[in-house]
Amino acid sequence: MTRLSPLHDEHVALGAALTDFAGWQMPLRYGSDVAEHTAVRTAAGLFDLSHMGELELSGPGAGDALDRALVGNLSALAVGRARYTMICAPDGGVLDDLVVYRLEDERYLVVANASNVAVVRDALTERLAGRPDATLEDRSEQTALIAVQGPLAEQVVGGLVPEATEAQAVRELRYYAAVRATVQGIDALVARTGYTGEDGFELFVPADEAPALWRAVLAAGAPLGLVPAGLSARDSLRLEAGMPLYGNELDRTTTPHDAGLGRVVRLDKVDRDGMPLPFVGRDALEARAHATPARTLVGLQGLTRRAARHGYDVVTTGGTVVGTVTSGAPSPTLGHPVAMAYVTPEVAAEGTDLAVDVRGRHEAVRVVPLPFYRRAR
C-alpha cells in the first residue's frame, strides 16, 4: 500500500504532481522543474523529506555499537554534530548511505533513505543482537522532515525562531551540525545539512505538527522567493552537486571506494585495547582499498544538447563500451547536460573525450571533475 506523507494534503492543495517513490506518494513538482531548481540556487526551496527514515540508537554502548555496525567512527562524533557514513554488507557492498547525528552522549539519530529504512533497521537489529547496552527505536512514523535549501535558507529559518538565543544558535550552526530550537512554536531538531549543494536546513518535527510548520515556512519565505520544490528539482540539484543517489551511484554491488567515497571508511578505528576494531565489511573494504579499481565514478559534461540518462552505455570515440551512466540530466544552472558514470580506469582521466549512446546515437561527452557545481562561500 502506498504511504502518504504527513504533508500530503498540503501538496494536494498546492496542485503538486504526485508520484510513487519508494512506496510513498510524494510531490514530483508543483509547477516548473526548472523554476523550482533555479529558486533553490538563487533564493530558497522547501522540500518534504518525510519519506526518509529516522532510527534512534541509545544507551551506554550506542557509540561502540555504531562503530561496529557502520563504516564510520561515530563514537568520536561530538554531541550536536553529524556525519555522512554508510552501512555495508560483509562483502563491502553498500546497503545504504546514511547521516548520523549525535544528539546526546548516549543517543544517536540515524537517517536512512526511504527505500532502505527496513533494510537498515533490520541490519542494525541483527548487529545489535546480544547487546543490552544499546537500544534501537524506529521513530520514522512519528517524525516528519522538512528541508529549506538555498542561499536565503538561513534568513527564512532564522526568522521563524523567536527566542533570541535559539535564533543565534541556528544562524551560527556549522555545516553538519544540529541544535534543538522552537521554530514557529514547534519543538524541532534543526540540522544544517542538505542534498542540493546549497546552504540549508533540515527540520525534524513531530509528524502531526508538520503541516503548520510547512505553511509557516511558505508564508515567511514567499516574499524572499522561496517556493515548494519536488523530487525532480531535488534530483537535478543533487546531480549538479555530484552527490550520489542510492540505486544509481550506490548499491549492493558497489563499495564506497568504487564511488570515490573511500574516505568515509575508517580503517583506523580501534577498540579500548588499541587493536583494530572489527566492523561489518572491514576485511572486504580493506582489501578493496588497496586493490586496482575495476571501475571509477566520473563526471561527464555533455557537448551536445541531448542528455545522457541512467543505464545508457558510455563508449569510446571508436564505439567500444567502457562504462554505464548512473545519473544524467540537463543542468539548468550550467546550461548543458551533465552525467555521472562508472567507466574503466583507462578512460577516467579529466579531459578524456568519450560518447554516450543515446537511443542509438553517440552523443559527445568529456570527463570532468565532480562536482559540476560548487556554490560560492
TrEMBL record:
Residues 295-373 form the Aminomethyltransferase C-terminal domain. It comes from the Bacteria. One of its GO terms (cellular component) is glycine cleavage complex. GO terms for molecular function: aminomethyltransferase activity; transaminase activity. It catalyses: N(6)-[(R)-S(8)-aminomethyldihydrolipoyl]-L-lysyl-[protein] + (6S)-5,6,7,8-tetrahydrofolate = N(6)-[(R)-dihydrolipoyl]-L-lysyl-[protein] + (6R)-5,10-methylene-5,6,7,8-tetrahydrofolate + NH4(+). Residues 7-269 form the GCVT N-terminal domain. The glycine cleavage system catalyzes the degradation of glycine. This is Aminomethyltransferase. It comes from Cellulomonas gilvus (strain ATCC 13127 / NRRL B-14078) (Cellvibrio gilvus). The lineage of its organism: Bacteria, Bacillati, Actinomycetota, Actinomycetes, Micrococcales. The gene is gcvT.
